[in-house]
Amino acid sequence: MSRSARTALAVMVVMILSGVLVAATVAVRSATGQAVPQQAAEPAPPEGQTYTGVKDCASCHFKQYLAWKKTGHSKSFDLLPQQYQANPACLKCHTTGFGEPTGYKGPTDVNLQGTTCEVCHGPGSNHSEVCKGFGKEKLTPEQERIARDTIWLMIPKNVCVECHAVQGHGESQTPPELRTKQ
């Protein structure tokens, strides 16, 4: 099966599963006579944050860091052959924050190489500063709320598609010699 056929199939599966989820929600609501509670919208983190890099995230979220280190996202920059490690078309997906004022600038930004925490959660400078004040103790519910309000649980857009979908521009931006044969 070609890559485009697999992509089309994956999109169709997601659409079907979304429809099933909506139908199940309606069925639960009808069966119980009660509305299914909706989650409150996540508050937007403070504006003007800067990228801190994966090392800063790991200082508090070490378990998550170790899990990330085992993924392809942690190796996405390393997978680029040398001649593409300065190519802006490649760096947008293989680094963190490339093209942003405080994002990846070049080889010395090792903590922003790869697809790090801040690609999905947004820049974390405010989160880092606030949480350092809490120390290493277990957070109270109020401290947890304060920490949560300083960074996105997940950026409210489909950040995955920005790098993984090729149907949006019709052709993969990956140079032909680097594409995997499938």
How does this model look, in words?
There is one protein chain. The chain folds into 2 domains: 1-38; 54-178, Flavocytochrome C3, Chain A (Flavocytochrome C3, Chain A, domain 2, Orthogonal Bundle). Helix content is 42%, strand content 0%. It has helices spanning 3-32, 54-58, 62-69, 88-94, 117-121, 125-132, 141-148, 159-164. The longest helix is centred in the first third of the chain and has 30 residues, at 3-32. It is elongated. The protein starts with a helix and ends in an 18-residue tail after the last helix.
The first-level CATH class name of the largest domain = Mainly Alpha
Secondary structure tally: strands: 0
N-end to C-end Cα span:
8 Å
Quickly count the helices.
8
CATH superfamily membership of the largest domain: Flavocytochrome C3, Chain A
**Contiguous runs where pLDDT drops below 50 for at least 5 residues:** 8-32
Report the oligomer: single chain
Q: Which structural class do you get from the secondary structure elements?
A: mainly alpha
